[in-house]
Protein backbone atom coordinates (compact mmCIF):
# COMPACT_ATOMS: atom_id res chain seq x y z
CA UNK A 1 0.00 0.00 0.00
CA UNK A 2 1.14 3.50 -0.75
CA UNK A 3 1.60 5.82 2.20
CA UNK A 4 0.30 9.36 2.11
CA UNK A 5 0.96 11.80 4.91
CA UNK A 6 -1.38 14.73 5.30
CA UNK A 7 0.37 17.59 7.06
CA UNK A 8 -1.11 18.21 10.49
CA UNK A 9 -3.83 15.58 9.87
CA UNK A 10 -4.25 14.89 13.58
CA UNK A 11 -4.80 18.60 14.21
CA UNK A 12 -7.81 18.79 11.89
CA UNK A 13 -10.73 19.20 14.23
CA UNK A 14 -13.64 17.80 12.26
CA UNK A 15 -14.26 14.61 10.35
CA UNK A 16 -15.25 16.70 7.35
CA UNK A 17 -11.90 18.54 7.41
CA UNK A 18 -10.08 15.19 7.53
CA UNK A 19 -12.21 14.00 4.62
CA UNK A 20 -11.40 17.14 2.62
CA UNK A 21 -7.67 16.73 3.32
CA UNK A 22 -7.74 13.15 2.06
CA UNK A 23 -9.78 14.12 -1.02
CA UNK A 24 -7.25 16.88 -1.66
CA UNK A 25 -4.47 14.27 -1.86
CA UNK A 26 -6.55 12.24 -4.30
CA UNK A 27 -7.21 15.35 -6.38
CA UNK A 28 -3.47 16.11 -6.40
CA UNK A 29 -2.73 12.67 -7.84
CA UNK A 30 -5.49 13.00 -10.44
CA UNK A 31 -4.26 16.46 -11.43
CA UNK A 32 -0.72 15.13 -11.84
CA UNK A 33 -2.15 12.36 -14.01
CA UNK A 34 -3.95 14.93 -16.15
CA UNK A 35 -0.70 16.84 -16.73
CA UNK A 36 1.13 13.63 -17.67
CA UNK A 37 -1.65 12.66 -20.08
CA UNK A 38 -1.69 16.15 -21.60
CA UNK A 39 2.06 16.02 -22.05
CA UNK A 40 1.77 12.58 -23.65
CA UNK A 41 -0.69 13.96 -26.19
CA UNK A 42 1.02 17.27 -26.90
CA UNK A 43 4.73 17.39 -26.08
CA UNK A 44 6.20 13.99 -25.28
CA UNK A 45 8.72 12.50 -27.69
CA UNK A 46 7.47 9.20 -29.17
CA UNK A 47 10.21 7.14 -27.53
CA UNK A 48 8.97 8.20 -24.10
CA UNK A 49 5.64 6.42 -24.46
CA UNK A 50 6.51 3.18 -22.62
CA UNK A 51 7.93 5.08 -19.65
CA UNK A 52 4.95 7.44 -19.61
CA UNK A 53 2.48 4.54 -19.73
CA UNK A 54 4.23 3.08 -16.68
CA UNK A 55 4.13 6.42 -14.84
CA UNK A 56 0.44 6.88 -15.56
CA UNK A 57 -0.29 3.31 -14.52
CA UNK A 58 1.59 3.71 -11.22
CA UNK A 59 -0.09 7.01 -10.34
CA UNK A 60 -3.51 5.65 -11.29
CA UNK A 61 -2.91 2.76 -8.92
CA UNK A 62 -1.93 5.15 -6.15
CA UNK A 63 -5.01 7.32 -6.72
CA UNK A 64 -7.27 4.25 -6.83
CA UNK A 65 -5.78 2.81 -3.66
CA UNK A 66 -6.24 6.07 -1.79
CA UNK A 67 -9.74 6.70 -3.14
CA UNK A 68 -10.92 3.22 -2.13
CA UNK A 69 -9.12 3.10 1.21
CA UNK A 70 -10.72 1.93 4.42
CA UNK A 71 -9.80 5.29 5.93
CA UNK A 72 -11.80 7.19 3.32
CA UNK A 73 -14.71 4.76 3.56
CA UNK A 74 -14.79 5.12 7.35
CA UNK A 75 -14.75 8.92 7.08
CA UNK A 76 -17.58 8.86 4.52
CA UNK A 77 -19.70 6.47 6.57
CA UNK A 78 -19.21 8.65 9.65
CA UNK A 79 -20.06 11.78 7.70
CA UNK A 80 -23.17 10.19 6.17
CA UNK A 81 -24.63 10.04 9.67
CA UNK A 82 -23.63 13.60 10.65
CA UNK A 83 -25.64 16.80 10.36
CA UNK A 84 -24.02 18.45 7.34
CA UNK A 85 -25.12 21.31 5.13
CA UNK A 86 -26.80 20.32 1.84
CA UNK A 87 -23.63 20.76 -0.25
CA UNK A 88 -21.54 18.66 2.14
CA UNK A 89 -24.26 15.97 2.25
CA UNK A 90 -24.37 15.78 -1.54
CA UNK A 91 -20.57 15.65 -1.70
CA UNK A 92 -20.42 12.80 0.82
CA UNK A 93 -23.24 10.88 -0.85
CA UNK A 94 -21.63 11.12 -4.30
CA UNK A 95 -18.17 10.21 -3.03
CA UNK A 96 -19.49 7.22 -1.08
CA UNK A 97 -21.32 5.99 -4.20
CA UNK A 98 -18.13 6.36 -6.23
CA UNK A 99 -15.99 4.65 -3.58
CA UNK A 100 -18.34 1.66 -3.35
CA UNK A 101 -18.37 1.33 -7.16
CA UNK A 102 -14.60 1.69 -7.51
CA UNK A 103 -13.89 -0.85 -4.77
CA UNK A 104 -15.15 -3.45 -7.22
CA UNK A 105 -11.99 -2.86 -9.27
CA UNK A 106 -8.70 -4.25 -8.05
CA UNK A 107 -5.65 -2.03 -8.02
CA UNK A 108 -4.03 -4.41 -10.52
CA UNK A 109 -7.00 -4.00 -12.88
CA UNK A 110 -6.90 -0.19 -12.65
CA UNK A 111 -3.19 -0.12 -13.40
CA UNK A 112 -3.53 -2.57 -16.30
CA UNK A 113 -6.50 -0.65 -17.75
CA UNK A 114 -4.73 2.69 -17.46
CA UNK A 115 -1.51 1.38 -19.00
CA UNK A 116 -3.42 -0.22 -21.88
CA UNK A 117 -5.32 3.02 -22.59
CA UNK A 118 -2.07 4.98 -22.56
CA UNK A 119 -0.44 2.53 -24.96
CA UNK A 120 -3.54 2.60 -27.15
CA UNK A 121 -3.36 6.38 -27.41
CA UNK A 122 0.21 6.16 -28.65
CA UNK A 123 -0.70 3.42 -31.13
CA UNK A 124 -3.62 5.53 -32.39
CA UNK A 125 -1.33 8.54 -32.91
CA UNK A 126 1.07 6.46 -35.02
CA UNK A 127 -1.76 4.78 -36.93
CA UNK A 128 -3.35 8.15 -37.67
CA UNK A 129 -0.07 9.58 -38.91
CA UNK A 130 0.58 6.51 -41.08
CA UNK A 131 -3.09 6.25 -42.12
CA UNK A 132 -2.97 2.56 -41.14
CA UNK A 133 -5.70 1.34 -38.76
CA UNK A 134 -4.00 -2.04 -38.39
CA UNK A 135 -1.32 -0.35 -36.23
CA UNK A 136 -4.04 0.53 -33.70
CA UNK A 137 -6.43 -2.40 -34.07
CA UNK A 138 -4.93 -4.71 -31.41
CA UNK A 139 -4.67 -1.94 -28.81
CA UNK A 140 -8.26 -0.87 -29.50
CA UNK A 141 -9.40 -4.47 -29.03
CA UNK A 142 -7.51 -4.61 -25.72
CA UNK A 143 -9.21 -1.41 -24.51
CA UNK A 144 -12.66 -2.69 -25.52
CA UNK A 145 -11.99 -6.03 -23.80
CA UNK A 146 -10.93 -4.25 -20.61
CA UNK A 147 -14.00 -2.00 -20.77
CA UNK A 148 -16.23 -5.07 -21.01
CA UNK A 149 -14.38 -6.62 -18.08
CA UNK A 150 -14.83 -3.37 -16.13
CA UNK A 151 -18.57 -3.37 -16.81
CA UNK A 152 -18.82 -6.91 -15.49
CA UNK A 153 -16.75 -6.04 -12.40
CA UNK A 154 -19.06 -3.08 -11.69
CA UNK A 155 -22.15 -5.14 -12.38
CA UNK A 156 -25.27 -4.15 -14.29
CA UNK A 157 -28.91 -5.13 -14.59
CA UNK A 158 -29.68 -5.04 -18.32
CA UNK A 159 -26.74 -3.87 -20.44
CA UNK A 160 -22.97 -3.74 -19.81
CA UNK A 161 -22.79 -0.18 -21.09
CA UNK A 162 -25.12 0.92 -18.27
CA UNK A 163 -22.30 0.25 -15.79
CA UNK A 164 -19.86 2.34 -17.81
CA UNK A 165 -22.26 5.24 -18.38
CA UNK A 166 -22.92 5.38 -14.65
CA UNK A 167 -19.33 6.59 -14.15
CA UNK A 168 -20.07 9.79 -16.03
CA UNK A 169 -23.84 10.16 -15.79
CA UNK A 170 -25.22 8.40 -12.71
CA UNK A 171 -28.57 6.79 -13.35
CA UNK A 172 -28.37 7.02 -17.14
CA UNK A 173 -29.08 3.72 -18.90
CA UNK A 174 -29.10 2.48 -22.47
CA UNK A 175 -32.91 2.25 -22.22
CA UNK A 176 -33.11 5.99 -21.50
CA UNK A 177 -30.66 6.85 -24.28
CA UNK A 178 -32.56 4.69 -26.78
CA UNK A 179 -35.81 6.49 -25.91
CA UNK A 180 -34.13 9.86 -26.48
CA UNK A 181 -32.90 8.80 -29.92
CA UNK A 182 -36.27 7.31 -30.87
CA UNK A 183 -37.95 10.60 -29.93
CA UNK A 184 -35.29 12.60 -31.77
CA UNK A 185 -35.84 10.58 -34.96
CA UNK A 186 -39.61 11.11 -34.83
Task: Describe the protein's architecture and organization.
The structure is a single chain. By secondary structure, the chain is mostly helical. Helices cover 76% and strands 0% of the residues. α1 (15-42) packs across α3, α2 packs antiparallel against α5 (107-130) and α6 crosses α7. The longest helix is centred in the first third of the chain and has 28 residues, at 15-42.
Structural class by secondary-structure content: mainly alpha
Uncertain segments of ≥5 residues (pLDDT<50)? none
Radius of gyration: 19 Å
Shape: globular
Distance between the termini: 54 Å
Could you tell me the number of beta strands? 0
Count helical runs: 8
Provide the fold topology.
Elements: H1 15-42, H2 49-67, H3 70-80, H4 86-102, H5 107-130, H6 134-154, H7 160-168, H8 174-185
Helix pairs in contact: 1-2, 1-3, 2-5, 3-4, 5-6, 6-7
Please provide a brief summary of the model.
With 186 residues, the chain is mostly helical. It is built from 8 helices and no strands.
